[in-house]
Amino acid sequence: MTKTKTKRTGVMVLGILFIGLCVSFLRLSRFGVDPFSAMNLGISGFIGWSFGTWQLLVNAIILVVVFFQARSCIGAGTIINMVFVGYIADFICYVANDVVQIQMNLPLRILALLLAQLMASMGVALYMVADMGIAPYDSVAIIIEKLTHQKIPFHKARILSDVVVVIIGIIFAIASGEGIWSVVGIGTIINACFNGPLIQFFKTKLEMFYL
Q1: Could you tell me if residue 32 is left (phi over 0), alpha (psi between -120 and 50 degrees) or otherwise beta?
Q2: Shortest CA distance to 51 belongs to which of 64, 33, 63?
Q3: What's the distance, Cα to Cα, between the start and end of the chain in Å?
Q4: How far from the centroid of its chain's Cα atoms is residue 206's Cα?
Q5: What is the pLDDT of residue 107?
Q6: What is the pLDDT of residue 127?
Q7: What's the average pLDDT block by block, 10 residues per block, for the chain (211 residues)?
Q8: Can you tell me the distance from the alpha carbon of 77 to that of 88, in angstroms, rounded to the nearest whole number?
Q9: Are the CB atoms for 128 and 50 separated by under 8 Å?
Q10: For residue 135, which of 156, 167, 117, 161 has the smallest C-alpha distance?
């Protein structure tokens, strides 16, 4: 493996780790998870599957669409992301809640929320810059931008897709009897509104440094 390939792989893995940490921190904060996780938590709770397993299936379905619409987005990072992020989040939440049994008081919940937002945007930006493939869901905004001939730029397309999946998550959370606050909250709103612009910001800065 060349030095450049090793560096890109390291950047990609770091980005995916950040995403897994982001999802787990959002779940631990109980302020609402990111939009894609909100949908998957809502549906997985409704059908009785684990979050990681359902997210893997959804990613596989989206990957089929990406294959035909934005094949350049697929790479090693795509597969690693779709397989491991959900299970990383499940594992960290298990350790925090069941093994260590951390008492998430309000200051810790706020800290977890802030760290999660930073990790979400930085994580996506990192593995996009590594250019070894991105998560199927993160390709959705790119596909929207492509199909609209850039009339809807990436950051706005990301907000649009985030709003749609949040609505789906709410519907399934209500149907399962868990209530909307089991999947959405202030953290979801913050993530939906700021993730796209922050990804673009970090991506631009990282490209200047990385390239």
Answers
A1: left
A2: 33
A3: 19
A4: 19
A5: 93
A6: 78
A7: 74 89 90 88 91 90 92 87 87 91 91 90 85 85 91 87 91 86 81 80 78 53
A8: 15
A9: no
A10: 161
